Write the structure tokens for this entry.
Amino acid sequence: MDILPEDSPTWQYIEETARRVTRKYGFSEIRFPTFESTELFQRGVGGTTDVVQKEMYTFTDREGRSFTLRPEGTACVARSLIENGKCSDTMPLKLFYLINCFRYEKPQAGRSREFYQFGTEVFGSASALTDATLISLAHSFLTELGIKGVHLHINSIGCPECRPQYRDALKSYFASRKGELCETCLSRLDTNPMRILDCKSPICSGIAKDAPKTIDHLCPDCEAHFAALKSYLEAQDIPYTVDPSIVRGLDYYTRTVFEFIADGIGAQSTVCGGGRYDGLVSELGGPKLPACGFAMGITRLILAMEASGVTVEKPKGPLLYIAPLGESARVKALSIVSALRKSGIVAECDIVGRSLKAQMKYADKIGAEYTLMLGDSEIETGKANLKRMSDSTQSEVSLDGIESYLKTLRE
Ligand code: ATP
Ligand code: MG
């Protein structure tokens, strides 16, 4: 996707906020390749998920190996930790990333084929304290962005211990209403009945409303984990709703799953999705390493910011624009501007060779705070008129003293 210069301040603001908030929670950044072997996602995300079945950008390289543009980051991070021997580092490992992802789906508002995610992952803790801390990080990030009207929905989908018994209950419920299910859900009945809970068709989601709920089928350990999570959220004053319809689209989740859902941004209203995935690292050939994480779609964050009336300030124009006339003035302008930049002042001069009139028009357009015209006589006398653009007042400055003069203006 294209992110145009006029839009990049908003993107930078979101990225800076992500870096600042993760820093407060002691997270470090991880970067990893844009594509991975297709098998990683088949094993990591799960063969029966929509992402793997329908949404991957897969290609073969010159040696006939199958690769896939990353549809998400979690499996990539887990792969990277295993490959780099990080699973025996001091735990917990608290990581974040800002990446582009690729999914072959129908483009619409809040859904595109290349999109950006801000993601976090914590490895090496099975405690609900971790889930609650991650949710708190997401909550504080959304608050710092100024997003209002966003609601936290939580659920627990159990573990390999209690899942089979729940799957059976779900399967027999949906089997009893087989005739009403859509074709996709019919095929999900055998492969992954939990995915039916996620179906967007009004008939299937109507049937799903009365389906058995995961939270009614949790084993004692999962139940205790979920109860602890709720009390840790309450301790941090984070409001939540227990929502049995949240099951998440990816296979690797266990126990906690959660979403932050925003008002007023249309049908694609989940700005953040996450949960616990205690089985992923060992599934990918690593040790048993509990983990949990979340990912947010940046385009949806922008929609939610717009809906909340948040505007990001455009960067200011230069403090000084120098408009030279004639070749020796151009050389002088270049040397002044370069000295100013070295001392941290935002300054520009003409680099096109425009007429004086066109230069002043340009300086106005880019929002220069001050301008300075430089011709032969200014160079001779070593003095020039500094013009404040807001009210056209002029003051004489010596060319050697511009830097210290501008510095006093900034104080
Ligand atoms: P959805 O149900 O909205 O398709 P998902 O369950 O596929 O979401 P995840 O894989 O959990 O999404 O990704 C985390 C977040 O990334 C989502 O909550 C959303 O904000 C964003 N996201 C996912 N797919 C897209 C896309 N195609 N375009 C833009 N953002 C996306
Ligand atoms: Mg999706």
